[in-house]
Design a protein that fits this description.
Strand content: 35-45%
Shape: globular
Largest sheet: 4 strands, antiparallel
Distance between the termini: 22 Å
Order of helices and strands: EEHEE
Structural class: mainly beta
Number of strands: 4
Radius of gyration: 15 Å
């Protein structure tokens, strides 16, 4: 059985554009309830059109951007609670 290196559960990122009429004045969901896992030795590719949330997802996985909701787990440790150690 392979070890799970990365597990993503219900990852969501919403942006608010309130007060900015050029962006519709409401909320925009860039990543909506994304879940996947990667085991030791596996490779994952993120494919999709421009605006699909690929870069936003990577930024959340790296800790550059904070998710609105969901969990990121590296080596069975929550990224929220063990960020420095990870």
């Amino acid at each position: 059985m392979k070890n799970v290196v990365l597990e993503v559960k219900n990852l969501t990122k919403k942006f608010s554009s309130r007060g900015q009429p050029a962006f519709g004045g409401g909320d925009f969901t860039a990543v909506d309830n994304l879940s996947f896992s990667i085991a030791d030795g596996e490779i994952l590719g993120l494919l999709g059109p421009n605006g699909a949330g690929k870069t936003t997802t990577i930024q959340m996985l790296l800790g550059v951007m904070k998710p609105t909701a969901g969990d990121i787990i590296y080596f069975n440790k929550s990224f929220k609670k063990h960020r420095e150690e990870i």
